[in-house]
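Project outcomes to date are best conveyed with an example. Our students and postdoctoral researchers have been running inverse folding experiments weekly, and each run begins with a structure described purely in C-alpha cells. The record below, which covers 863 residues, was selected by the lab manager from last quarter's runs and is presented without edits.
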C-alpha cells in the first residue's frame, strides 16, 4: 500500500485508454501512481462493463489513498456509476470526475505521483482544460486564482543567468528560456516542469514572445502550446517559492531536460533518410517497423482488375498508405459524401448595436444542432448514441460558445466566430498529436453543423439513398458514422482518420469493412465502383465483374453451422473464448464447438480474498453447463502482469510482464493452484462437459511436467499448456512428452517474441501476430504436434482474423478459439480454401520479410 491516489480509466476503447495511459505515464517515469484500465468489453470489443470497472476500482483502492475515476463518453459514465454499487473498497473514498480523459489523466497522474490528496488530484484533473481554454480564447487566463496579483508581464530589472534572461517582475520573477531539446516541449519535459512546480508555493505562467501568458498547473497546458526546438518562452513565477522554481526551470531548459539537443534528423537535408533523398534505412526509425520505405507490400499475384490504387498492412500507418481498420472485403457503387461546409468569409465587422443579436444567433444555431444530434442519438444503437450525445455536448459546450461570443464582441460575424473558435479548439487537440488529435474531427463536425445552420447551407451528412453503396468521404463525421445503416453501407473509405478514429471504432462495431487514410479517394475518385478490403487497406477502383461476383458469393456471412472445416473437408473445430457463464452461453448460441480458452482469472479479478473452492466450483459449472458433451479447456489462473489478483502475492516487480505471472505464481503459492485444480475437477464431475485444463505462461518442460502431475493427481486427465513464450514454442516437441495438448496464446507469444509490451499502443505494429517470426514459432509447435498426433490449438486474437486463421491452420493449428462473434467469418474463410492453400499461405508468411508482405502473400493465395 502506497497511500497514494489510485486512478481508474473507463473507456469504450482499450487502445484509446492504453494510449492515454501510456502518454500519462511518460510523465512520471520513475514512480508512477497505480493506473488501472477498465476499457472495452471482456471479449475485446468496444464498450464499457460495470463489473470490469468495479474490479478496476477495487484494484486502485488497494493503494490506500482513494480512487479517482476518469471516464470517456456516455455509457462509460453510467458503467462507472453502476460500478460504485459493486466495488469492494471498504472505507476508501472513490470519486468519479468529469475531468477530460486525456488532459485530466495527465494531470492526475503527475499530481498523484507526488503523493497529493484525492481532493488535490481531482482538482488538478478537473482544471486540466482551463489553461487550454484560456489560451484558445486568447485571454490572460488565471482560472481560480482570484488573488488580485499583479499581471505576470510587468516590466522589471533584468539579470542574466545560465543562458536565460531573467527579469524581476513587479510581483515575482521572470525568465526567458530557449527550448533546446530536439523534440520540443513534449510530454517528458512538460512532466519535469510540473515536477518542479509540485509542492512549491508558486504560480507559473508561460508565454511565447508576443503572446499572452498561460497559467500552467498541469502538463496539458504546456503540451497544448506545442513548442518546438529553438523557440523561446517567457516564464513568470509568483509566490514565496517563485525564485527557487525559476532557478530550477532555467537549469532544466538550459540542459535540454537531459535530452539530445542536436538538430532533429530530417533537418540534415540531402541524404537524410527522412527527407526521401536517400535509400539508406534510418538506423533509428520511429515506431513503424514495417513501413514501405524499406519494404513496400507486394501486390497480389495475378491481379488484373481495375486500378489497385493503394494497399497496405493494417495498423502500422506507413507514410501515406491507406490503412484497413475494419475487416471484410466487399465491392459496390461509390457514393461520395457531400463536400465540407464552406468556410464563412471574414466579412465586415458587425456594428456594435448588432453584436448581441449576432451572439444570440450562435446560441440558437448551436441549440438546434445539439437538439438534432440528440434526436438522432435516440434512434442510434448504444455506441452511436454515445458519440451523437458527445457531439450534442460539444454543441452545448459553454466554453466553446463563449469563445465564439468573444469573437463576436470584437466584431466577427456569427458564422465566422464559430468557425474560428471551434477551429482553434480542434487545432489544439491536433497539436497534442497521437490519438487525441483524432478527436479533433468531433469538434470540426459540430462546427460545420452550426455554421451550416447559421448560413443556410445544407447540413453535412449521409446521402439519402435506399440502394447499397460504398461510402467515400473526406473525413467521416462521427455523427454520420454513428447512424450509418449497415444494411445499406457496404464499406467506408475516408481520406482522413486513423485506426482509433470514431470511423474505425464504429465501423468495427457495425461490422462494416473500412479503410482510412486513403488519400485522394474522395477528392480524386478513380471510378464509379470500388472494391474495399478492410483487412489490408486494398482499394480497387472499377473491379472486374468476375472479381465483384466472386466477392458477392462471400459477402453474406452465414451463421456458423457448428462444424469448422476447410473446403476439402479438413476438420478444424472452432471454439469460443470465454471468461464467464454468459460468454459461454453466447458461444453456445453461436454454435461454437466447445470452449478453447476459459480465462478463469476473469471470474475473480476484483477479489481481494481467494475465492473458496465452493465459489470456484459454482463459477466453473456455469461455463461447463453451456457445453454438455463438448470440450471445455480451462486455463488456470493467469494472474500477474496486466491481470494482477490481490490474493496472489506477486510482489512489486520492475517488469511484471517478465515476472511472476501465470503458472509461475504456483512457485510462490502452490496450494492456490492445487485448490483451483480441485475445484475444476469437482465442477467437471458435476457437469457433462469434457473438461481439460491448461497452464498459462509456461517456459520449461519441468514446469509443464509439474503442472501435469498436479492436475492428474486430482483426476483431471486431459492436461495441456499454453505456448506463450518463444521458449515453449521451441520446446514443443519435448512438451508433448509430458502433456496432451498445447494451445497457442498468440497475444503473449507475439509480445514475447517481438519484445513489445502488448499494452503499449505505440508498439502496436510490433505486436502484430502477422509477424513472420511469430508464425514461424507457431509452425514449429504445429510440427511438434503433428509428429505425435497431438492437438495444437490457437486461442489468441490471431485466431479471430479470418485470413490469419487460415494461415494458422496451414501452420499446423488443429483447432481455433475466439470470441463468439468472430466465429462465422473465420468459418466462412476456412470453407473457402483448401488445406493445401492454407499450408502454402503459412509458408509464404514465414518467408515474408514483414507483416505487410506477409498479409499480401497470404491474401494472394487465399482469396
Ligand atoms: C494469449 O496470450 O494469446 C492469450 C490467449 O492469453 P491472454 O490474452 O489471456 O493473456
Ligand atoms: Mg496470454
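After processing, the design step wrote out the following sequence:
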Amino acid at each position: 500500500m502506497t497511500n497514494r491516489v489510485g486512478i481508474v480509466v473507463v473507456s469504450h476503447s482499450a487502445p484509446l485508454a492504453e494510449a492515454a495511459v501510456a502518454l500519462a505515464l511518460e510523465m512520471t517515469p520513475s514512480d508512477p501512481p497505480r493506473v488501472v484500465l477498465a476499457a472495452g468489453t471482456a471479449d475485446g470489443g468496444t464498450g464499457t462493463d460495470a463489473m470490469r470497472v468495479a474490479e478496476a476500482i477495487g484494484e486502485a483502492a488497494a493503494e490506500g489513498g482513494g480512487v479517482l475515476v476518469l471516464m470517456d463518453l456516455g455509457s462509460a459514465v453510467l458503467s462507472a456509476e453502476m460500478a460504485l454499487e459493486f466495488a469492494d473498497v471498504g472505507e476508501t473514498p472513490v470519486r468519479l470526475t468529469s475531468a477530460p480523459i486525456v488532459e485530466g489523466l495527465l494531470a492526475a497522474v503527475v499530481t498523484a505521483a507526488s503523493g497529493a490528496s484525492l481532493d488535490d488530484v481531482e482538482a488538478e484533473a478537473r482544471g486540466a482544460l482551463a489553461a487550454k481554454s484560456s489560451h484558445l480564447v486568447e485571454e490572460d487566463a488565471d482560472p481560480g486564482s482570484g488573488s488580485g496579483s499583479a499581471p505576470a508581464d510587468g516590466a522589471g530589472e533584468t539579470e542574466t543567468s545560465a543562458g536565460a534572461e531573467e527579469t524581476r517582475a513587479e510581483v515575482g520573477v521572470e525568465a526567458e528560456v530557449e527550448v533546446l531539446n530536439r523534440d520540443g516541449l513534449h510530454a517528458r519535459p512538460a512532466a519535469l516542469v510540473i515536477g518542479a512546480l509540485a509542492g512549491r508555493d508558486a504560480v507559473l505562467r508561460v508565454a511565447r514572445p508576443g503572446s499572452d501568458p498561460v497559467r500552467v498547473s498541469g502538463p496539458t497546458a504546456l503540451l497544448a502550446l506545442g513548442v518546438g526546438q529553438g523557440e523561446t518562452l517567457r516564464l513568470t513565477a509568483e509566490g514565496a517559492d517563485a525564485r527557487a522554481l525559476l532557478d530550477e526551470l532555467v537549469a532544466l531548459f538550459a540542459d535540454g531536460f537531459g535530452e539530445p539537443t542536436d538538430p532533429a534528423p530530417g533537418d540534415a537535408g540531402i541524404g537524410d533518410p527522412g527527407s526521401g533523398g536517400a535509400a539508406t534505412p534510418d538506423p533509428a526509425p520511429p515506431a513503424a517497423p514495417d513501413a514501405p520505405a524499406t519494404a513496400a507490400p507486394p501486390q497480389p499475384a495475378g491481379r488484373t482488375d481495375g486500378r489497385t490504387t493503394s494497399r497496405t498492412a493494417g495498423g502500422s500507418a506507413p507514410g501515406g498508405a491507406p490503412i484497413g481498420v475494419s475487416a471484410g472485403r466487399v465491392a459496390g457503387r461509390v457514393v461520395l459524401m457531400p463536400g465540407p461546409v464552406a468556410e464563412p468569409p471574414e466579412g465586415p465587422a458587425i456594428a456594435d448595436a448588432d453584436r448581441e443579436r449576432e451572439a444570440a444567433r450562435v446560441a440558437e444555431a448551436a441549440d438546434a444542432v445539439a437538439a438534432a444530434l440528440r434526436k438522432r442519438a435516440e434512434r442510434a444503437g448504444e455506441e452511436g448514441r454515445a458519440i451523437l450525445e458527445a457531439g450534442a455536448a460539444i454543441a452545448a459546450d459553454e466554453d466553446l460558445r463563449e469563445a465564439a461570443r468573444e469573437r463576436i464582441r470584437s466584431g466577427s460575424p456569427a458564422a465566422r466566430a464559430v468557425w474560428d473558435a471551434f477551429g482553434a479548439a480542434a487545432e489544439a487537440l491536433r497539436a497534442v498529436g497521437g490519438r487525441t488529435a483524432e478527436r479533433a474531427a468531433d469538434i470540426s463536425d459540430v462546427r460545420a453543423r452550426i455554421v451550416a445552420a447559421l448560413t443556410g447551407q445544407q447540413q453535412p451528412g449521409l446521402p439519402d439513398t435506399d440502394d447499397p453503396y460504398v461510402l467515400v468521404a473526406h473525413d467521416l463525421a462521427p455523427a454520420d458514422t454513428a447512424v450509418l445503416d449497415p444494411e445499406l453501407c457496404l464499406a467506408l473509405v475516408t481520406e482522413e482518420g486513423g485506426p482509433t478514429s470514431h470511423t474505425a471504432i464504429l465501423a468495427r462495431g457495425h461490422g462494416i469493412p473500412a479503410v482510412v487514410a486513403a488519400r485522394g479517394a474522395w477528392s480524386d475518385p478513380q471510378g464509379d465502383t470500388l472494391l474495399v478490403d478492410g483487412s489490408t487497406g486494398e482499394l480497387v477502383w472499377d473491379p472486374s465483374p468476375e472479381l465483384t461476383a466472386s466477392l458477392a458469393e462471400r459477402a453474406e456471412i452465414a451463421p456458423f453451422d457448428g462444424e469448422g472445416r476447410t473446403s476439402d473437408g479438413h476438420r478444424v473445430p472452432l471454439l469460443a473464448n470465454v471468461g464467464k457463464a454468459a460468454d459461454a452461453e453466447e458461444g453456445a448460441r453461436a454454435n461454437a464447438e466447445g470452449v478453447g480458452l476459459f480465462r478463469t482469472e476473469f471470474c475473480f479479478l476484483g477479489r481481494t480474498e481467494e475465492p473458496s473452492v465452493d465459489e470456484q466450483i459454482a463459477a466453473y459449472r456455469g461455463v461447463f453447463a453451456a457445453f454438455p458433451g463438448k470440450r471445455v479447456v480451462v486455463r488456470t489462473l493467469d494472474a500477474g502482469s496486466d491481470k494482477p489478483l490481490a490474493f496472489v502475492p506477486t510482489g512489486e516487480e520492475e517488469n511484471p510482464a517478465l515476472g511472476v505471472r501465470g503458472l509461475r505464481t504456483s512457485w510462490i503459492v502452490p496450494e492456490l493452484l492445487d485448490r483451483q485444480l480441485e475445484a475444476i475437477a469437482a465442477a467437471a464431475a458435476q457437469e457433462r462437459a469434457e473438461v481439460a485444463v491448461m497452464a498459462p505462461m509456461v517456459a520449461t518442460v519441468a514446469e509443464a511436467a509439474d503442472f501435469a502431475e498436479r492436475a492428474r493427481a486430482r483426476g483431471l486427465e486431459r492436461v495441456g499448456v499454453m505456448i506463450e513464450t518463444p521458449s515453449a514454442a521451441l520446446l514443443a516437441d519435448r512438451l508433448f512428452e509430458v502433456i496432451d495438448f498445447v494451445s497457442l496464446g498468440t497475444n503473449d507469444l507475439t509480445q514475447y517474441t517481438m519484445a513489445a509490451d502488448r499494452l503499449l499502443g505505440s508498439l502496436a505494429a510490433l505486436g502484430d501476430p502477422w509477424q513472420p517470426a511469430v508464425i514461424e514459432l507457431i509452425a514449429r509447435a504445429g510440427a511438434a504436434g503433428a509428429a505425435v498426433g497431438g492437438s495444437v490449438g490457437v486461442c489468441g486474437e490471431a485466431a479471430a482474423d479470418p485470413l490469419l486463421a487460415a494461415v494458422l491452420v496451414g501452420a499446423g493449428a488443429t483447432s481455433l478459439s475466439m470470441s463468439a462473434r468472430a466465429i462465422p467469418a473465420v468459418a466462412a474463410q476456412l470453407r473457402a480454401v483448401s488445406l493445401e492453400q492454407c499450408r502454402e499461405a503459412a509458408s509464404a508468411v514465414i518467408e515474408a520479410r514483414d507483416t505487410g508482405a506477409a498479409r499480401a502473400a497470404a491474401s494472394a493465395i487465399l482469396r
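The mean pLDDT is 81. The first helix runs from residue 14 to 25. The training component of this project remains on track.
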